[in-house]
Design goal:
The protein is mainly α. A hairpin with a 2-residue loop joins strand 1 and strand 2. A two-stranded antiparallel ribbon has the order 1-2. The radius of gyration is 27 Å and the shape is elongated. The chain contains four helices and two strands.
Length: 99
């Protein structure tokens, strides 16, 4: 089954996030091995995008998407099982005089 968002096909989770945000995920998270100059350019581009009226709600959209994912996956995320504490077993000595 294929999934389309608008006219774009979403193949992976990253595709869904990118299409939901309207920007590439790497713009916000960076890429492995980027140098300081590349990082500065990426952050400048991100600031320019956030200044655009079309993307001013992006931080709120990201928080909303994260909350929806947490809500949808809450049983798996918060499947907390209490651990049983081991009880110290004492061995009683049967040595000695009987009363």
């Amino acid at each position: 089954m294929r999934t389309y968002i608008g006219h774009q096909q979403a193949v992976s989770v990253d595709d869904f996030v990118e299409l939901a945000l309207g920007t590439p995920l790497e713009l916000w998270l960076g890429v492995e091995g980027e140098n300081e100059m590349e990082r500065a350019a990426r952050l400048d581009a991100a600031r320019d995008i956030l200044a655009d009226p079309e993307y001013r709600s992006l931080p709120d959209d990201v928080a909303r998407i994260a909350a929806e994912v947490i809500e949808a996956r809450a049983p798996e995320l918060f499947n907390v099982v209490p651990l049983v504490r081991p009880t110290g077993r004492r061995r009683f000595s049967r040595k000695g005089a009987a009363a």
